[in-house]
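SAMPLE LOG
Freezer: B-3
Tube label: C17
Construct: single chain, 243 aa
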Amino acid sequence: MRKETGLPDTPALDESHFRTIDPNSLFPAARTTSPPKFLLLYGSLRERSFSRFAAEEAARILQRFGAETRIFNPSGLPLPDDAPVDHPKVAELRDLVTWCDGMVWSSPERHGAMTGIMKTQIDWIPLSLGAVRPTQGKTLAVMQVSGGSQSFNAVNQLRILGRWMRCLTIPNQSSVPKAFQQFDEEGRMKPSPYYDRIVDVMEELVRFTLLTRDIREHLVDRYSERKESGAELISRVNTTAAR
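STRUCTURE (predicted):
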């Protein structure tokens, strides 16, 4: 009979890298008081770009909630790997991603998917910049506009990408059907349940951002990565000692 030790039997765990959950790290006494910062991306270069109009409305709502916003214009952004990373538009995009606390991605649905322009922007955002992961732990809201009936293809794809980029993608989302009917000649969104949903999404985005931005590093601190980093350190030390 196996002897009980009072602890679960977890022989595969590397105890040197295992951490119990620390409530003090999840609920810090000091909180950041500066306005949350949001980057908004849109996925069309047309003069009457409804995804841009939706992003601009989202930015106005975020500002009403006390946030700081910046909208990236993808015009002139090269295709992924078709220009160096110091290309001015690439550098601008990466600087904005590093600057922000959260993002809003707004894409048209084209051929049942997000647009290539939207995907190009996301593909230029790296998982890491040196030792910094510019998207990890940052909040994300996803939106789409459609020319026809309501669909969720683009937002579903954006959610997959958000997870891959290690963002904290909020539960709520916006999908605006027949977008040509929802915006006036000035590009302003008309009052409607679809506008109300965008307000809901931005409200939720700000709340999640305020809840998580001070504990971002703690939320994404992973056992497997601590273990891998520890193994790399041991390997480097051993290699150096052997020289």
